[in-house]
Description:
Blueprint: H1 3-30, H2 32-52, H3 55-63, H4 65-86, H5 92-99, H6 102-114, H7 119-138, H8 147-171, H9 177-199, H10 207-235, H11 237-240, H12 247-259, H13 265-281
Helix pairs in contact: 1-2, 1-5, 1-10, 1-12, 2-4, 2-9, 2-10, 3-9, 4-8, 4-9, 5-12, 6-8, 7-13, 9-10
Amino acid sequence: MTPIEFLQVILMAAAWGGSFLFLRMAVGEFGAIALIGMRVTIAGLVLLPGIVGNRVWRQQFRDNAFRLMVLGVINAALPFTLFAYVTLFVTAGFASIINATAPLFTAFLAWLWFRERPGLLGVIGLVTGFSGVVLLVGGVPTAQSGTVLAIAGAFLASFLYGVSANYVKTRLAGVHAWVITGGSLVFATLWLLPLAVWQMPDRVPSTQAWVAVLLLAVLCTSIPNIYYFRLVVRAGPTRAMAVAFLIPVFGMLWGALMLGEVVTLTMLAACSVILLGTALVGGLTSRRLR
Length: 290
C-alpha cells in the first residue's frame, strides 16, 4: 500500500466514522427513511453530472444498469436506512462498532463465493469476531423498547455490505468506480425517494439537521465511496473492507467530542475483540503484511 493509498484509507475511515455522528444529529428530526432518502439523492446528484458528461461512463452506466440497481439496494438503500434507524437507539460509537463486523461477513462470503478458504487463523478470526459481537450486544447501552431489533437490523446492514463488496468484485469488475458509486446512488434514490417524500416530517428540520444531511451525503457518501469501490476492484473485497477496522475509532471519537457520548469499557473491549478477529480473517497478522 502506497503512502497515498494509506492516507486515503485513513480519510475514508474518518469520513465513514463521521457518518454515524451525522446520522445521530439528523435522524431524530427527519426519521430514518426520509434522512436516507435525502442522503442518497444529494449524493447521487453530486456524481451524476460526471457520468452524464463522460461518453465512456454513460455507456458503462447503460450496460450495467440492472447490476447498479441491485447494488443500489444492497449497498445503499437498505443498509443506510438500517444504520440510520439503529442510531435512534444507540450511540454513534456503538453503531460504528457494529459496522466493524462487515469485514467478517465479507471474508465469510468470499469463502463461499470465491472458495477463498480462510485457513486456521481465518476460522479462529471468525469465531473471535463473532465473540466480540456477542460481547457487544451483551452491553447494549439502553433498555429502550425496540433496541434489540434495531441492533439486529444494523448487523443485517453489515452483512449486506459484505454481500455488496463481493457483488462488485464479481459483477462490476472493469466498471469505473465513479460509475459504480454514482449509478448505485441514483438507483438507491429511485428506490427511496418516493418513501422519503411520504415520510418527510411535518415540522421543518433545524438548520443543524440540514447541514448534517449535506455533510453526510457529500463528505461521507459521494467522495469516499469512489475510493472504496476502486479499492474493491483492485485489491478484492476482503482487503478493501479492511478500512472498517478504523471506523469505530473515529465513530467513538466523533461521538465523544461532538455529542458528549460515553465510551464504555464494554464497547472498547468488544471493539478490540471484533478488530482482532477481523485482522485474523483478513490475514493482517501475516509476516508479509506486517
